[in-house]
Write a structure and sequence with these properties.
Order of helices and strands: EEHEHEEEEEEEHEHEEHHHEHHH
CATH superfamily of the largest domain: Apoptosis, Tumor Necrosis Factor Receptor Associated Protein 2, Chain A
CATH class of the largest domain: Mainly Beta
Distance between the termini: 91 Å
Radius of gyration: 29 Å
Helix content: 25-40%
CATH topology of the largest domain: Apoptosis, Tumor Necrosis Factor Receptor Associated Protein 2, Chain A
GO biological process, one term: protein ubiquitination
Number of helices: 10
Protein name: BTB/POZ domain containing protein-like
Strand content: 25-35%
Number of strands: 14
Largest sheet: 5 strands, antiparallel
Number of domains: 2
Pathway: Protein modification; protein ubiquitination
Length: about 325
């Protein structure tokens, strides 16, 4: 068999004609796309009991040009797993430019995040899944047994109690899209914006003591802290550390510095656990896990501490804890 040829209109010489197989091979293009969605579930206790197979769905988000959503089944997606929570990533609509011979390989992570702390309570990584649009089937992937409901209740209790019974489900997805017939035009993706993590960095700063420039003595124990953080979060600490004008008045600032003596602030009449919780809140805007038996004591004393140091959000949270515990 000879090579198929055709004439060029320009020079009249035979010119090789690309075979269909070579054309197909040249047109195969692979691209990588990413996307992320964080779904907030409010009123956790009200979601339980909606029935097996009934889901709460996130708003839709885009990744790789395709439209996706998260499906959360608080009572499981089938009868035999009714004591489990099920979570799925579902394809709502393929990209308009998707061809029947496009192949998508998706890898994704589903994470359960606490509402108050933003900490990962449970996380499942799904290995590569492949699908194409040739059969018109739009897939959904995930975990029927994502987390036992009893385990979820116990691990989320304290943060749900403090944050109005809300928590989050996050999905991060990465796709390799191979287009068999033409260049994939689904390159426009949503920007993956993870939840804020400033509180994590400040918690690490507090825990490490790096750069600490003031110490606080409570009940015979010394805590290393950072003046700027304390002052930024509490007007009382601001006045104590930098003067009433926040250090603008040099004379007053020097007087405030002298008042702290050797760099130690002494706090009397405060329970050590309450101070630890308040200090964590100052740095991270979150409270540590509080045992059910200590809720009333901690709430009442945190309210006193919040009034004492002018920490408004801590006041509101403490009042809410007292109200819910009544």
């Amino acid at each position: 068999m000879g090579q198929t040829t055709s004439k060029s209109a320009g020079d009249g010489k035979p010119k090789p004609k690309t075979t269909s197989a070579a054309a197909a091979a040249a047109a195969v293009v692979s691209e990588t796309a990413t996307g992320s969605m964080t779904m907030r579930i409010a009123g956790y206790s009200q979601t339980k009991g909606i029935g097996v197979g009934n889901s709460i769905n996130s708003s839709k988000f885009h990744a790789g040009g395709h439209t996706w959503y998260i499906a959360y089944y608080p009572d499981g997606d089938r009868e035999e797993y009714s004591d489990w929570v099920s979570v799925y990533l579902c394809l709502a609509r393929p990209a308009a430019a998707a061809a029947a011979d496009d192949v998508v390989e998706a890898k994704f992570t589903l994470s359960l995040l606490s509402g108050t702390y933003g900490a990962v309570v449970e996380e499942k990584i799904c290995t590569a899944k492949k699908f194409s649009f040739a059969n018109g089937y739009w897939p959904s992937w995930g975990h029927t047994r994502f987390i036992k409901r009893k385990k979820m209740d116990s691990r989320l209790w304290s943060c749900l109690h403090l944050d109005g019974q809300s928590f989050y489900i996050r999905c991060n997805i990465t796709m390799d899209i191979t287009s068999g017939g033409r260049r994939c035009q689904a390159a426009t993706t949503a920007v993956a914006v993870p939840p804020p993590d400033l509180h994590r960095h400040l918690a690490a700063l507090l825990g490490s003591g790096v750069g600490a420039d003031v110490r606080i003595r409570v009940g015979g124990k010394l805590f290393a802290a950072h003046k700027n953080v304390l002052a930024a979060r509490s007007p009382v600490f601001m006045a104590e550390l930098f003067g009433n004008n926040g250090g603008k008045d040099q004379k007053e600032a020097k007087a405030a510095a002298a008042a702290t003596g050797n760099g130690v602030i002494r706090i009397d009449d405060m329970d050590l656990r309450v101070f630890r919780a308040m200090l964590q809140f100052i740095y991270t805007d979150t409270l540590p896990k509080i045992d059910k038996g200590d809720t009333a004591f901690m709430a009442q004393n945190l309210l006193v501490a919040a009034h004492r140091y002018g920490i408004e959000r801590l006041k509101s949270i403490s009042v809410d804890m007292i109200r819910k515990g009544a």
